[in-house]
Amino acid sequence: MRTITFSLPAHEQKQIQVNMLISIKKSIAAANNRPHKMHTHTIESYPESFDDRAAQFAMFEQLKTDGLVDILKERDECMSPKDLHGDMFCPTTNPDTPEKQLMLERKRHDARCYKQGIHVMTLVVIGDEIDSVGGFIGNDFYNSGYDTDFYRDAIERVKNSYPEYISQILSACSK
């Protein structure tokens, strides 16, 4: 049996730092664009979670570069926009929203589904399909929370096979 060893050269350590900065900037932009999703918190109260998310993203990207992990995006031809409606556009469950507004939002939602597609995302770790989740329009999977669940799961599974390498990557994230 052959043992494969991974190492982290200086240029890849630098790329991890770049990926962390990219992730932090995206998190701040998302928070600024959707303040209603911030609940009662302010952007200033989130730096730790932004850092954690950035580290997970950077680690995942490094593992992806090495061919150890991936997230596959496949169009779900069996799911229709109506399958995603639930009670989002129901006047009974949304009595504060005018019925015409609900109809308009439903039409926009359906158009977006047809234009961007409904997708299933699959986590692959060391060649094995580990998990999948569907019902995402376009790139809505990213920044949904499911993406960080995938990152975390992938990192843990790779850590079982390559603990020293994960330690190296983690160290690069904390520089």
Strand content: 5-15%
- What is the general shape? elongated
Mind summarizing the main beta sheet? 3 strands, antiparallel
Radius of gyration: 20 Å
- CA distance, first residue to last residue: 35 Å
Average pLDDT for all residues: 87
Low-confidence stretches: none
Oligomer: single chain
Order of helices and strands: HHEHHEEHH
Which structural class matches the secondary elements? Answer: alpha+beta
The domain count comes to 1
Account of the protein in words:
The protein has 175 residues and is an alpha+beta fold. It has one domain (10-173). Helix content is 53%, strand content 14%. It is built from six helices and three strands. A three-stranded antiparallel β-sheet has the order 1-2-3. Helix 2 crosses helix 5 (146-161), helix 2 packs across helix 6 (163-173) and helix 5 (146-161) crosses helix 6 (163-173). The chain starts with 9 loop residues before the first helix and ends with a helix.
Q: In a nutshell, what does this entry contain?
A:
This protein is of the alpha+beta class and 175 residues long.
